[in-house]
């Protein structure tokens, strides 16, 4: 999928960031609510969480397959990928229990995923 | 013709802060990363129309504005001339105006501001690529 040189890549990347706002944004709301912040019930936001995650996975895959060599050799991407697997696993298992530990872990992991992702461009050769 | 915005960008370009920000290896990447985290912070809270979240929302927005101002300060002239940056600012102003709509237009205001925020994100990516 050779679209890294056209306008299509920034568009796909933008959808990725919008997905981030929806997914990480709603996950953060749920986590800070567990930690005591007076957030109203966030159950109805589940649609946004799922839509955001789907958007991120689809656009992420599209960007990855557009230039697999670049990403596989990029240390920031390697860290991001590893953290992403851990964060997703924690999201679909530990987080269901609603414990404060799960909430702190979720916030920490997703923050690290975002930071690692932002570092990708800095570690490109 | 006197152009106040251009003069402002020029004077910011000549500051030592601009020099430090643009020459530092890690300043812009770290500020940019905090900016993206704030997108998640603020973006999620925008979806919940509850007044109790106001302080949470404002904190996220403040972080966005402060990091955004610093990012602008790292290259004021280039951004001044960037069409995508101008579009982003215009969309931000429109989003601010959305928040001022009376309460009975709440649903319209929410839909409109979400569309505008999406536009802000698209414009932001455009800045990096042009």
What does this molecule look like?
- The complex is a heterodimer of chains A (125) and B (130).
- Chain A is mainly α.
- Chain A has one domain.
- Chain A has helices spanning 8-34, 46-66, 68-72, 75-92, 100-119.
- In chain A, helix 1 packs antiparallel against helix 2 (46-66) and helix 1 runs antiparallel to helix 5 (100-119).
- The mean pLDDT of chain A is 92.
- Chain B has 130 residues and is mainly alpha-helical.
- Helix content of chain B is 81%, strand content 0%.
- Chain B is built from seven helices and no strands.
- In chain B, helix 6 packs antiparallel against helix 7.
- The A-B interface holds A 7, 9-11, 13-14, 17-18, 20-22, 24-29, 32, 37-40, 42, 45, 48, 110-111, 114-115, 118-119, 122 and B 29, 32-33, 36-37, 39-48, 50, 52-53, 56, 117-118, 121-122, 124-126, 128-129.
How many domain modules of chain B?
2
Oligomer: heterodimer
Shape of chain B: globular
Number of H/I helices of chain A: 5
Q: First CA to last CA of chain B: what distance?
A: 27 Å
Radius of gyration of chain B: 16 Å
Spans where pLDDT lies below 50 across 5 or more residues of chain B: none
Name the beta content range of chain A.
Answer: under 5%
Structural class of chain A: mainly alpha
Number of domains of chain A: 1
Q: Helix amount of chain A, in percent?
A: over 70%
Secondary structure class of chain B reads mainly alpha
Query: With helices defined by DSSP (H or I, 4 residues minimum), what is the helix count of chain B?
Result: 7
Q: Write down the overall mean pLDDT of chain A.
A: 92
Question: What is the helical fraction of chain B, as a range of percent?
Answer: over 70%
Give the integer mean of the pLDDT values of chain B: 92
Biggest chain pair interface: A-B, 32 and 28 residues
The percentage of residues in β strands of chain B lies in under 5%
């Amino acid at each position: 999928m050779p679209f890294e040189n056209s306008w299509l890549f920034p568009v796909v990347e933008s959808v990725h960031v919008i997905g981030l706002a929806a997914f990480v944004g709603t996950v953060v709301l749920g986590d800070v609510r567990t930690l005591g912040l007076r957030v109203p019930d966030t159950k109805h936001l589940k649609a946004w969480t799922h839509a955001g995650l789907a958007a991120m996975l689809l656009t992420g895959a599209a960007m990855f397959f557009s230039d697999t060599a670049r990403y596989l050799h990029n240390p920031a991407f390697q860290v991001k990928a590893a953290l992403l697997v851990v964060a997703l696993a924690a999201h679909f298992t530990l987080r269901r229990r609603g414990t404060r530990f799960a909430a702190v872990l979720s916030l920490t992991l997703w923050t690290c995923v975002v930071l690692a992702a932002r570092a990708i461009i800095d570690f490109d050769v | 013709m006197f152009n106040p915005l251009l003069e402002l960008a020029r004077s910011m370009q000549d500051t030592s802060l601009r020099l430090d920000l643009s020459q530092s290896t890690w300043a812009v990447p770290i500020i940019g990363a905090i900016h993206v985290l704030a997108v998640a912070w603020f973006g999620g809270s925008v979806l919940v129309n509850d007044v109790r979240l106001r302080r949470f929302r404002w904190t996220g927005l403040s972080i966005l504005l402060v990091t955004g101002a610093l990012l602008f300060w790292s290259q004021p002239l280039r951004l001044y001339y960037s069409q995508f940056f101008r579009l982003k600012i215009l969309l931000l102003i429109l989003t601010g105006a959305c928040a001022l709509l009376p309460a009975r237009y709440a649903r319209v205001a929410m839909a409109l501001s979400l569309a505008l925020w999406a536009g802000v994100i698209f414009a932001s990516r455009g800045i990096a690529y042009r």
